[in-house]
Design a protein that fits this description.
The complex is a heterodimer. Chain A is built from 12 helices and 14 strands. Chain A is an alpha+beta fold. In chain A, the strands form 4 sheets. A 5-stranded antiparallel sheet of chain A has the order 4-3-7-6-5, sandwiched between helices. Chain A has a 5-stranded mixed sheet with strand order 9-11-12-14-13. Chain A has a two-stranded antiparallel ribbon with strand order 1-2. In chain B, 43% of the residues lie in helices and 22% in strands. Classes of the chains: A alpha+beta, B alpha/beta.
Chain lengths: 456, 242
């Protein structure tokens, strides 16, 4: 799972958890509310128990109805007025603190009307009594009376409807979430892609708009800074190598001049030869350093050409021999007949460098001399360039190191490269750029054999 | 004297008489180049370190060959070449200290005859200078003097052991190509290309037949050649003795 999917998944999980917590909180609140409502309805001072008590305790004393003092006190306390309406006449049989605007005679329709709603804006509750109807009138605006009539079937379907409603709500919530979040996700995606590119060393320029414009701006600035540093590094290396080249030209020129001057003592000529050899090493090092810097950030773009590997190798070896190879070395080229008509698409200059490095390595690592064999073979899908020698070869540990070593510029173990130099690393990189592979093995004569395989 | 390249006396003097202009911003490089060329026998050498000086020297001495550095304090070698080429076509070899400029030199198509990246092998520089000079300047009667035989390219004749052998056009083409790279390996591809054009593939057998016939004319013992040797798997080399 990539970073983007993982972060989106976490975001969704957090959202669901947040919704769940909010729902729990709401349910808790509703529970508390219902409990308190129940308390107000069914508690001792609640409406129904009070009117039931009055209805049960109102007595005729001396042709007058009376209620116990405790109930009178309760009515007083809650500022409630009360009356008992006669069943037959509609007249009032008992009153308590009856407001002046309340009528003293009621018809059936009056009773039906106020029992459901209000009496002169007073919320009233009623209860039956053997003589008539007990009415308690609460202060105005103290109670709300709601009357709903539901068809029975509708009421039964209510739980399913509520469930359906919740599902619909959730669906709408997620739709909204995706709609609103899409833009943010897009911005996040751009940011994440940018970060990934930055991590792999590429230069980025993100669009600076939307929710994450500030982040994009910071990333762009970071990328620019890295690019500037990389360019400065490359320029520094290029500058150093440029400055080294001039003195090297002079050293190499005079050294070769002394080396070939037969009028000088042999010892002086040998010393000049040594100076020339070491200068050549320095020159190769400078060239390798330049190339490796350019390859390090993938700015070295392949300049693809179509060419015959056979012709290419003949020219390369001829040029190598023409530039002067000590007599203790011999270079032999063997081209498989099948590979003669094969064409290759590749960067001629870089491949030339790779094979040159391999031949040069044979010379470098076998100072006592050796025979160097270069072969070109055609396979079904690949062309093979094989460079081997009958020199001292390598230990299995060294071969293992070559196969597994990390990128030079990303390695913190400079010791490895002091031991093995850049030459083979450059070969591996060039071959990799051509989607090919490099193999190392010990040949029959005990020397090293390097096989470069490039897809045709 | 270095004597990297060995030639017959005619051509020896003919090419080494050419006036050479060296342009480089580094005095030590100029001195080294002058020393190399003088050791090789070149006598008319002019040096300068700036583009301005180079144009003045060019007007004054009319050099026949120029070695140009790419980076100069008051301009670059490319623009200098363009200015020089306005009036006359003289052969030019570029020296550059930056290997990235190899690409530029190849891509520019300025018509430079060759280029070399510093630091270079003096032996290779001298060989290339001769190759360019041979290509651009031909002696009136060019004779190739080999061990035991003389070849007259313009007359297409080989003189050996008192006999005269006639050379065919193809044989002349092959010998000319080999001689221009005297003592250096010339690949079979280069030879086929110079004689038959681009289509290299399939001419190897014909080339071998021509080489055999040339050997019959120039070698004392054609089955054990010493003048025109085969470099196995690569090509041929014409050995030009002192």
């Amino acid at each position: 799972m990539n970073v983007f999917q993982s972060s989106i998944r976490q975001f969704v999980i957090r959202t669901v958890v947040a919704i769940f917590l909010i729902a729990c909180f709401n349910i808790l609140l509703v529970g508390v509310y219902i409990y308190r409502f129940q308390q107000s309805v069914s508690g001792e001072t609640a409406i129904l128990p009070l009117i039931k008590q009055i209805s049960g305790n109102i007595r005729m004393v001396d042709n007058r109805y009376e209620i116990p003092d405790s109930m009178t006190n309760e009515l007083e306390k809650q500022n409630i007025w009360a009356m008992l309406i006669d069943d037959h006449s509609g007249k009032l049989l008992w009153i308590h603190k009856l407001p002046q605007d309340i009528p003293t005679h009621y018809t059936l329709s009056d009773i039906a009307s106020f029992s459901r709603y209000y009496l002169k804006d007073y919320p009233v509750v009623t209860w039956k009594h053997p003589k008539g109807l007990i009415v308690l009138g609460y202060p105005k605006n103290s109670l709300s009376k709601l009357n709903y009539i539901f068809p029975y079937g509708e009421l039964q379907a209510m739980p399913f409807r509520i469930l359906f409603l919740i599902v619909c709500d959730l669906f709408i919530l997620f739709l909204l979430y995706f709609y609103i979040g899409r833009k943010s996700i897009k911005s996040v995606h751009n940011i994440l892609t940018g970060v990934k590119s930055l991590a792999s060393g590429d230069h980025i320029h993100l669009k600076e708009h939307g929710d994450f414009s500030e982040v994009a701006n910071q990333l762009n600035r970071t990328s620019d800074l890295l690019k500037r540093r990389k360019t400065a590094q490359e320029n520094w290396i290029a500058g150093i190598s440029h400055d080294i080249r001039t003195p090297l030209t002079v050293i190499l020129g005079y050294a070769e001049s002394i080396e070939t001057n037969s009028s000088l003592p042999k010892e002086v000529q040998n010393k000049a030869s040594l100076i020339k050899y070491q200068s050549t090493r320095l020159r190769d090092l400078v060239n390798d350093l330049n190339l490796i810097t350019r390859m390090g950030d993938d700015s070295q773009v392949l300049r693809l050409e179509v060419f015959y590997p056979s012709v290419f190798c003949r020219a390369l070896i001829a040029s190598f021999l023409n530039s002067g190879v000590p007599d203790i070395f011999s270079v032999e080229l063997n081209i498989d007949q099948n590979s003669e008509p094969v064409c290759l698409i590749g960067d001629r200059r870089l491949l030339q460098r790779a094979i040159y490095n391999l031949i040069h390595n044979c010379i470098k690592h076998n100072p006592a001399g050796c025979n160097i064999y270069v072969r070109v073979e055609a396979r079904k899908q690949d062309i093979l360039f094989i460079v081997s020698d009958d020199g001292k070869g390598m230990t299995p540990e060294e071969i293992h190191f070559l196969k597994t070593r990390t990128q030079y510029l990303g390695s913190d173990n400079l010791f490895q490269f002091k031991q093995h130099g850049f030459g083979l690393y450059i070969v591996q990189q060039i071959v990799k750029m051509h989607s090919g592979s490099t193999g190392f093995q010990i040949n029959m004569s005990g020397g090293l054999e390097v096989v470069i395989s490039i897809p045709i | 004297m270095l004597n990297f390249v060995v030639m017959n006396r005619n051509e020896h003097y003919f090419l080494r008489d050419k006036r050479i202009l060296l342009v480089d911003d580094e005095q030590v490089v100029l001195d080294m180049l002058e020393s190399l060329l003088k050791e090789e026998g070149f006598s008319s050498i002019f040096k300068c370190g700036t583009k301005k000086d180079a144009l003045e020297q060019y007007a004054l001495h009319q050099p026949e060959f120029t070695i140009l550095d790419v980076m100069l304090p008051d301009g670059d070698g490319f623009s200098l070449l363009r200015e020089i080429r306005k009036s006359e076509h003289i052969p030019v070899l570029f020296l550059t200290a930056k290997d990235q400029q190899e690409d530029l030199l190849e891509g520019l198509g300025l018509g430079a005859d060759d280029y070399m990246v510093k630091p270079f092998s003096p032996r290779e520089l001298i060989l290339r200078i001769y190759a360019i000079l041979r290509r651009c300047y031909k002696a009136d009667d060019p004779l190739i003097i080999l061990e035991g035989c003389i070849i007259n390219i313009s007359k297409a004749e080989v003189y050996r052991e008192g006999e005269v052998f006639q050379l065919t056009a193809k044989e002349i083409g092959i010998l000319d190509t080999l001689y221009k790279a005297a003592n250096r390996i010339v690949t079979i591809d280069t030879l086929c290309n110079s004689v038959w054009g681009d289509n290299r593939y399939g001419y190897e057998n014909s080339l071998m037949a021509h080489i055999r016939r040339i050997r019959e004319k120039i070698e004392v013992n054609p089955s054990s050649p010493i003048l025109l040797t085969t470099i196995k798997g690569l090509g041929y080399k014409l050995n030009v003795p002192l």
